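ingest -> fold -> write
write: protein_1
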Amino acid sequence: MTQAISASNVTLRTLKQAFNLDAASPQFCREWLEAIAPTAAPLNDLEQISLDRVQTNFLDLLEDPSVLENSVKMVVLAPLRDLAGFYRRPYRITTETSIEITLEADNQVIRGRIDILVVNQVNHQPIWLAVIESKRSDFAATCALAQILAYMLANPEPTRSTFGPMALT
């Protein structure tokens, strides 16, 4: 009999064993960053002001923990998605996207809902660009690591490379 597991309860150890995952080195994709850096436009004043405001707003939220996940989405993620241009074509945002992963060896199924999924339609095929899992403001980012990896493993385009998760320090 197959056992269903909520993606929010899956552990990193389970995913590492089931999918032979290994942590990337700190130099992961460094060549991409170096190739982009010379051509990347510096932030303009308005973009920098906007980023500073997002940071200030989040730090203010931390003053009165615990701020729930939906507040974090509104205060932090919505403005960042706007600055990244993810609300305009060719990008599309979906929320609460259902996923399911089968762990054959353990006869288990991981089910969950991606908080925010950014896709790009290329030749009528959706390509996953960003999978976002938000948590309450008083949770460490590492609390969502196994859950976000489970979502990434559910990518319907397994022939395409999937990278992440990434945290800024």
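write: protein_2
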Amino acid sequence: MTAALAADVAVSNAALRRYLHGLPGVDQVGAEGRAAMLSTRSIKAASKQQAIDLAISMVDLTTLEGMDTPGKVRALCAKALRPDPTDPTTPHVAAVCVYGDMAAIARDAVGDALHVAAVATAFPSGRASLAVKLADTRDAVANGADEIDMVIDRGAFLAGRYLDVYDEIVAIKEACGTAHLKVIFETGELRTYDNVRRASYLAMLAGADFIKTSTGKVSPAATLPVTLILLEAVRDWHRQTGQRIGVKPAGGIRTSKDAIRYLVMVNEVCGEAWLTPDLFRFGASSLLNDLLLQRQRMRTGHYSGPDYVTID
């Protein structure tokens, strides 16, 4: 099905429109109700300890500020490698996520121990020519990034120019070489859950390795209902094609309680196969600190002061 469709949409925006608009519509009340229901699930203490360690291992520890410096990136990498220097049993995070010009510094700091994710394609707006976006991507990969987080052209998507978005993802995927591609939708700008579902399928069809909610620069960013829609999309895609695609909610996930809610949802919707950093990530900067504080409390029976964690 997908190979035939890809051959069709490569020359026809109309065929891609028919496919995307032929997807089942999202029941807004149902999606929000199920997300709310799943968020009330509780887990036992031993499972909570495992969930916190799993969540730590899924974090893309992120700094995406104009005032980022080499020293800040190196400090972030040190924390990513050893999140809690007082406890060597603490797992390291999945990746550090930086701007492309900082990818070489991050790669030098983490070596082969962690992934280096770089945002590209005129992040966060996506407003640049394809030539600029391709150069941005190639530079990041040449600097040592083995994961690229690209943003789609939301203007083109909302205008119904699906083929333009598809072709751009295909081109960026090719420019990635062996690096994995995460496609960011900026769901807060897509307006409807139906658009979120259509964007999910469009990205998967074009070759995305991960689909990602947000840049973290627009509110609302990641939400449980939106992430539910992405998870349902990758689950159904796997059933249709046998291919597993990852999901990355990003922006606004700050507490251990939030992270565990997302992990419960992943397990309920996609199953244990997706409970791995290879298929689920948290895009976050402050989340790791709360996970470390909760982990330390469970280990020692008391909370440490605010100086126990670094302020990034």
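write: annotation protein_2
The mean pLDDT is 93.
The chain has one domain: 2-301.
pipeline exit 0
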